[in-house]
Amino acid sequence: MSNHTPPAPPGWNKTVDDLFAELGALKRSSVGPPEIDWARDYQRSLIPVGTRFPKKGDVYEAVADIEVHYLISWAAPSTGGGMGTLMKGERIIVENGLLPRPISVYAKPKEYAAMEERMIPESDRKNKQYAGFYLSLKTVDLSRNFILVYEEATPVDYQL
Question: How many whole angstroms separate alpha carbon 140 and alpha carbon 146?
Fold first, then answer.
């Protein structure tokens, strides 16, 4: 929570997903401060004690097949996405890590081209505005469904 965010109201128990669900159900017109900060703090409080928070450059390996969210970058002011399956043994590389205790991170697959072909619909891949894809993973899911292979890897440790 930033130094300028007021404390959450007593009993606050909404997650970021809850706020966006309310937005989708038209129960709110926007999602932003201070509610988003309260939601992140609440969600962070639900992460089990002792959980290692991911850092930029970490490499994780899936211990089983797992459904994940992917996001598509477009050479346009929009983002798309969907769901796909990471297969047991596939590795991902954490791409962001600005926050010291993130509730979720963006990652790219180590075997980018193979996963892109398997996960992203051909119509999207062939679109002239297609600019790639990335994965969105919750810290809790990383802790439960992945093993840490390399901690804060450098670009020499892997090839995209």
Answer: 10
Q: What is the reported pTM?
A: 0.81
Q: Where are the domains of the chain?
A: 16-45, 59-155
Residue 159, pLDDT > 60, answer: no
Rounded Cα distance between 23 and 29, Å, is: 6
What are the φ and ψ backbone dihedral angles of 118, each rounded to 5 degrees? -75, -35
**Spatial separation of the C-alpha atoms in residues 25 and 23, rounded to whole Å:** 5
Query: Of 116, 34, 113, whose CA–CA distance to 72 is shortest?
Result: 116
DSSP character at residue 64: S
Contact call for residues 131 and 74 (beta carbons, < 8 A): yes
Strands 66-74 and 79-86: antiparallel
